[in-house]
C-alpha cells in the first residue's frame, strides 16, 4: 500500500526538503501567509495561565513567524532537557526556556537557515527577559531524520516537542526512530501534526503548497499507531485535535478531512510494571487536582501496566504514588484509540471554535 509514511528515494527526499525550505524560508513571510490558517486556530481548550504568560513574553518578530499547528507545551517542565524538532523561528523553544527555568535546557533543530537566523537573533533578548545569567536555549542546523549528524546523542532528553513538522518529512519512520533514540527511558514525545482520514492522492502529495501546508505528507491517523508500535513507543494518547479549514483546496482534496492533532508518546522501560494503584499527589503547576492522565488527587486509580510504567519512569514519577495492585483489581481500560477527526468534529459542535474560521 502506498501511503504518506512510506519511504521516498533519496532524490525525492532532497527535493521535498528543498521545497519545504523554500516555503518556510522564502515564500512565507509571516504566519498570516499560511493558506489554511491552521497556526491561528483555537480548539476551545483553555491554555493554562502560566503557558499564556510564557507565550506573551516571546518577542513579536519570533511570534510573527510561528507556523505551528497546535499546543505542544505539556505539564511538569521544570529542569527538563527538551528538544524541539523543526523549531522554526523558536516560539515554542523560547516559551519553554521560561517554563523549564535556568537549570533546564532546550535545543531547537531546523534545516531552514532563514528560520534559524531569526531564532538565534533573539536568544539574548529572551535570556535577559527571563533574568538568566546565561542562555538555556540553543538552535542547531540539522535534519530531524539524522539527529546524530547534528551532534545529538542517545538517551539525552526528558521531552521532545515538535509543531507541524513531521507531516513535512517524507520518511516519518526515520524521524520517530531518531526521537526514540535520543529520548531517555520515560521520555516523552509531545507533538502536534496534521493527519487525515483518507488516502492522500498523488496530485496532493506532489503539490508543493499542499505539502508545505502539511496536507500532502499527512499520515492517515491510524498509521501513527503502527509506526509508534514498530519503533517501540507507548500507544499514542490523543491530547487534542482541531479541524483544518481546507475550503480553498476542496477541488483537489475532494472529501478528505484534515485535522491537526496533539499526541503524546513515551519511551517505555524494557520491563513494564504490573497493574498498579496510582494516585496523584499534586504539585504540577496548573494541575492542582488532577492531571491530563485523569488521576484525581488523593484518589487511587487502578491503571494498566503501560500507564503505570509511563508514570513511574518519566518526569511525572515524583508527583505520583504508585503501588502494585491486588490481583483482583481491574484496571481502567488502556488508552483508547480515538478517531481525531470525529473528536474534532464533536468538539467543534460543542464549542464552535474548533476550526480556523474562529480566528
Ligand atoms: C510548519 S514550520 C513549523 C516551525 C515551528 N515548529 C513553529 O511552530 O513555528 C516547519 C519547520 O520545520 C522545518 N523542517 C521541516 N522538515 C525538516 C527536517 N526534515 N529537518 C529539520 N527541519 C525540518 C522547516 O524548516 C520549518 O522551519
Automatic annotation (TrEMBL):
GO terms for molecular function: arsenite methyltransferase activity. It catalyses: arsenic triglutathione + [thioredoxin]-dithiol + S-adenosyl-L-methionine + 2 H2O = methylarsonous acid + [thioredoxin]-disulfide + 3 glutathione + S-adenosyl-L-homocysteine + H(+); arsenic triglutathione + 3 [thioredoxin]-dithiol + 3 S-adenosyl-L-methionine = trimethylarsine + 3 [thioredoxin]-disulfide + 3 glutathione + 3 S-adenosyl-L-homocysteine + 3 H(+); arsenic triglutathione + 2 [thioredoxin]-dithiol + 2 S-adenosyl-L-methionine + H2O = dimethylarsinous acid + 2 [thioredoxin]-disulfide + 3 glutathione + 2 S-adenosyl-L-homocysteine + 2 H(+). Residues 78-230 form the Methyltransferase domain. It holds the Pfam family Methyltransf_31. InterPro entries: Arsenite_MeTrfase-like, Methyltranfer_dom, SAM-dependent_MTases_sf. Its EC number is 2.1.1.137. Belongs to the methyltransferase superfamily. Arsenite methyltransferase family. This is Arsenite methyltransferase. It comes from Batillaria attramentaria.
